[in-house]
Amino acid sequence: MKKDEIQRYNANERSNHWAVAILFILAGLSGLALFHPALFWLSNLFGGGPWTRILHPFLGVAMFVLFLGLVIRFWSANYFSGNDGLWLKNIGKVLRNQEDGVPPIGKYNPGQKLLFWALLASMLVLLVSGVVIWRAYFSHLFGIDAIRLAALAHAFAAFVLVVAIIVHVYAAIWIKGSFGAMLSGKVSQRWARKHHALWYREVTDRKQD
Q1: Longest CA pairwise span in the chain (Å)
Q2: Residue 102: left if φ>0, alpha if ψ -120 to 50, beta else—which one?
Q3: Are 75 and 117 within 8 A, CB to CB?
Q4: Within 13 Å of residue 160, how many CA atoms lie on the same side as its CB?
Q5: Which residues are catalytic?
Q6: Nearest partner of 17 among 77, 59, 70, 60, judged by Cα
Q7: DSSP 3-state assignment of 104?
Q8: How many whole angstroms separate alpha carbon 113 and alpha carbon 28?
Q9: pLDDT confidence tier of residue 195, bands split at 50, 70 and 90
Q10: 3-26, pLDDT tens digit by residue?
Q11: Within 10 Å of residue 81's Cβ, how many Cβ atoms?
C-alpha cells in the first residue's frame, strides 16, 4: 500500500460485494424472463424456461444470504448520526461537487445509508414474498389471495431493488475513486478527507495509537 493510501475494504468484503453483484445480475435477468412474455427470451441464458424457473429462487436466496454478510460487516457504519441531517440539507452542494462547508461525515454518507436500508428492506420483501410464490416447495401452503399479494410485493420490491442498484452504480462511477475502492480496497488520503472526513480522522487516529 502506498503511503498516501488508506485501506477502505479488505479482500473478504470486496469478494462478498462482487459475489452479491453477480448474483443480483443473474437473479435479475432470470426474474425478468419470468416477469413478462416479451422478456422470456432471457431464459435462454439459463437453459430455457424450466431451468430459469428452477434457478431463479435459488439465485435469489443465495444473493440474500451473501448480502447478509455485508449487512453484518457494515451494519454499525450505516446508523444515522448527528451530521447526517445537516449533510442532507447541503445535498445540492454535494451534487455540484462543492463540498466546502458541508458537515464532515463518517465512513458512509446519508445517501449511502439510505441506500443500504432500502437494499435490506427490498431484499427482505423479496425473500418473504418469494417463499410464498415458490411453487416447488411452499406455494401450496398459502391461499390464492396470499400468493397474488406476494407476487405484487415481489414485483414492487424487485423494482425498488433495481432502481437502488442503478443509483448505487451511478454514484460509484460519478464520485471518482469510489469504484476503485471496491476493486483495490484502497483510497487516497485526499479522497478520504474530502468525502468522509470523520472516517479519515478515525482511521488515521487508530494508526497513530
Answers
A1: 62
A2: beta
A3: no
A4: 19
A5: 168
A6: 70
A7: coil
A8: 23
A9: confident
A10: 788 999 999 999 999 999 999 999
A11: 13
Round to whole Å and give the CA distance between 34 and 77. Answer: 36
CA–CA separation, 175 and 93 (whole Å): 14
Separation of alpha carbons 209 and 206, rounded Å: 5
d(C-alpha 26, C-alpha 59), whole Å: 7
Please state the pTM of the whole predicted model: 0.89
- Give phi and psi for 175, each to the nearest 5: -85, 100
Answer whether 52's CB lies under 8 Å from 33's CB: yes
The 3-state secondary structure of 44-81 reads HHHCCHHHHHHHHHHHHHHHHHHHHHHHHHHCHHHCCC
The sign of the torsion formed by the CA atoms of 130, 119, 30, 51 equals: negative
Residue 186's beta-bridge partner residues? Answer: 7
Q: Evaluate whether 4 touches 33 at the Cβ level (below 8 Å).
A: no
- Label residue 177 left, alpha or beta by phi (over 0 means left) and psi (-120 to 50 means alpha): left
Give Rg (Cα) of the chain.
20
Residues 134-174 have pLDDT tens digits of 988 898 999 999 999 999 999 999 999 999 999 999 888 88
* Helices and strands of the chain, counted as H and E runs: 9, 2
142 contacts 131 by C-beta, under 8 angstroms: no
